[in-house]
Amino acid sequence: MDLIPVGEVDYLLFEKLKAQAAPRGNPHGRKKNKRYCNAVCAFDIETTTLPDLEQAIMYIWQFQLDETVTIIGRTWEEFLEFLRNVREAIRPKVLCMYVHNLSFEFQFLKGIYAFQQDEVFAVEPRKILKCTMYDTFEFRCSYLHSNMSLAAFTKKMGVPDAKLSDFDYSKIRYPWTELSEDEIHYCINDVRGLVQALKREMSMDHDTLYTIPLTSTGYVRRDCKRAMEEFNHAQLLEMLPDPKVYRLLREAFRGGNTHANRWYSGDIIPGVYSMDLSSAYPSAMVDFKFPMKAFFREGEIPLERVTELIYKKHKAVLMRICFYDIRLTSRYIGCPYLARDKCRNIQGGRFDNGRILSADYLETTITDIDLKIILTQYTWSACNPFDVYWARYGKLPKPLRDTVIKYYRLKTQLKQNPGEPFDAEKDYFYFKAKNKLNSLYGMCAQDPVKDSIDFIDGVFIQRNDPVEDLLAKSYRKAFLSYAWGVWVTAWCRWMLQQGIEAAGDNFLYCDTDSVKTIGPLDMTAFNQEMRDLSEKNGGYADDPSGRRHYLGVFESETGPEGMEKFVTLGAKKYAYVEDGKLHITIAGVNKKKGAVELGKIENFKEGFIFRSAGGTESVYNDNVHYPYFCDGHWVTITDNVVIRDSTYELGITEEYRRILNGCAEIKYAERDIPGLFILKR
User: Which residues contact 467 (CB under 8 A, 6 or more apart)?
Assistant: First the structure.
């Protein structure tokens, strides 16, 4: 591929671009009436933060025309002139350009071009999926498409010009700075590698610019939508929630259960084991039951009637409920189930890092699955289910379950053993099957009532359309029920709870589909039940060696000796030593860099500051336009985003500290009592 400065571009390259053939019937409405140039292109910029000024400027831009040429320029004026010339050469066709993390480039683009409302498609404020300029250029976000960093995407696709590393972003560079060959090489690989990765992906999936999904979930959405064409649409419409039921479902929706046992928090524990649920969300979709009819309102009824609906009539129940004088049945329960942020009107509450220990009064919205767990952990003086709905339980539609099983079997069959020769094509399809399998739940849990984001006069505005209107709009093209997503997460919390309860006092930590315990955890009985279910429902797969794998069973993540040491300071904050190597997991901290910076597990305590591993933060500068004199030159500062290093300090809240201090006092008082704290003396 040739490298051409923008001033030397021969625009005949663009005139010769033919229109890509559109698929028959043009099933993708978002691209209606567009005639794309038959070329995959990429665009990228590099920026620098000005000294002593929290403003950033672009110092080089790169454009990749298919696998033909790489064009570079140094100023926005050059880029705009380039676009005008290309537009003259290709109109009325449209040129599609991929940008890895378009949200970043968009912040600069809006400083040089006045985007209209219909030219920007944002999924969230400052999260841009695509945008257009001059009715000729369509920018798409390849980061949202791939859901991977550029380095990971180009590596996964095995391209010759993968993203390079070891670039000094702290160095100040200007549009007039002479760049070294290595610096230019780094810049152009970003666009060359991106085009190569996209073209390889499109070739493997038989996609074109018309059919390639905009997001990573688009692939599985496409497959599931086709599969659900076999399902009776009238039956689906019957079970879609009305506005009242939808509001309860939104209140009841909750993600995975992530929590650290307060009784061990801050202590370095030896001999820790970890068990992981195999494909937990897909297992729930295949092996368990879901609301498969419209919800019927019971209104305000006694708890006895609710338990009758659950245990005798086996109904899917959705309810608002209030509790009086609610508290744990034992102060030693390490993973209280009720989450503070899923409760309302809490009075006299005591909390364990976001979980309810006790309260004089609270309200919450739950499913029958949640209630089953609550009944095992809490006691109360009175409760009142005051807005109760129920629906008939049934298996998810067979076409949907078959799709889950298909992806699971593909993933299992395509996974390569460490000892066998690497097969790039096999690895790609394994990766795709794994991603599709993991995306299935997210598709079910997607909120049908999602406000549109408008971009008006340079400002992101979230529309607050009536729920009724948004539901009606969503249901015109619905092929899944939102209730299924609510129940998938509930079933996964239930499966995880079986591990938590089996661990008992030896429970240390959990996160969505894994449980960490003091000593090994015996899940033999549960695993046998899940294997029987999976055999019955087809939720299994045989790998190339003939070994059978099952959905929803607990599998060990640690060796026979477990972890040498483990410590946690709360949810998403822990470190451990395994096979002599230190590992950390902290939200917002790079795992590899963080482990090096921490040095030893004994340093994992309140007050430790991660500096090099603390990641970065973005500062958005809007409505900026003024000249600035620096390095002997004038430069125009426009809308921009500054990326700056961030630090992360290990810490806990005052509320959590009081709880931990209380636990420490009890442990000291009971230090001579065998049992619960024997391993901690």
Answer: 243, 246, 247, 449
Burial of 627 (0-12, 13-18, 19+ CB in 10 A): exposed
Cβ neighbors of 517 (< 8 A, separation 6 or more) are 272, 273, 274, 275, 503, 506, 507, 508
Task: Tell me which amino acid residue 528 is.
Answer: Q
Measured CA to CA, the distance from residue 275 to residue 516 in angstroms comes to: 7
The average pLDDT across 200-213 equals 93
pLDDT class for 670, splitting at 50, 70, 90? confident
Phi, psi of 549 (to 5 degrees): -120, 145
Q: What mean pLDDT value characterizes the chain?
A: 93
Q: Helix or strand or coil: residue 141? A: strand
Report the range of poorest mean pLDDT among 141-150, 231-240, 361-370.
Answer: 231-240
pLDDT tens readout for residues 381-412: 999 999 999 999 999 999 999 999 999 999 99
Q: What is the dihedral of CA 351, 352, 357, 361, to 10 degrees?
A: 20
pLDDT of 322 strictly over 60: yes
- Please give the Cα distance from 641 to 49 (Å, whole number): 9
Contact 187, 60 (CB under 8 A): yes
Q: Which residues pair with 366 in a beta bridge?
A: 319
Place of tokens 């960093």: 149
| Positive or negative: CA dihedral 495, 499, 505, 506 | negative
Q: How far is CA 133 from CA 83, 84, 104, 120, 140, in A?
A: 9, 10, 16, 9, 12
Q: Positive or negative, the Cα torsion across 440, 442, 446, 451?
A: negative
Coarse DSSP helix, strand, coil percentages of the chain, rounded to the nearest 5 percent:
35, 30, 35
Residue 329 DSSP symbol: S
- Segment holding 427, helix H or strand E: helix 424-444
For the domain 2-216, what is the CATH code?
A: 3.30.420.10
- pLDDT at residue 221 is higher than 60: yes
Mean pLDDT of 535-540: 95
Which of 251, 647, 283 has its CA nearest to residue 483?
251
Closest CA to 444 of 293, 225, 641: 225
Look at the chain and count its residues: 681
Q: What does the alpha-carbon distance between residue 140 and residue 133 come to, in Å, rounded to a whole number? A: 12
Domain ranges of the chain: 2-216
Buried/exposed code over 143-163 (b: 16+ C-beta within 10 A; e: otherwise):
bbbbebebeebbebbebebbb
Q: Quick one: pLDDT at residue 672?
A: 64
Looking at the DSSP assignment, which residues form a beta bridge with residue 518? 272
How far apart, in Å, are the Cα atoms of 587 and each of 261, 512, 554, 649? 18, 15, 25, 11
Q: Is the pLDDT of residue 677 over 60?
A: no
3-state DSSP call for residue 38? coil
Q: What is the C-alpha to C-alpha distance for residues 342 and 353, in angstroms, rounded to an integer? A: 14
CA neighbor of 659 nearest in space, from 359, 351, 337: 351
DSSP H/E element including 83: helix 76-90
HSE at residue 155, side-chain half, CA atoms within 13 A, is 8
Whether residue 674 is preceded by a cis peptide bond, meaning omega within 30 degrees of 0, is: no
Q: Are 569 and 652 in contact (CB under 8 A)?
A: yes
pLDDT digits (tens, 9 = 90+) for 585-624: 998 899 999 999 999 999 999 999 999 898 889 999 999 9
Tokens of residue 82, six digits: 């380039």
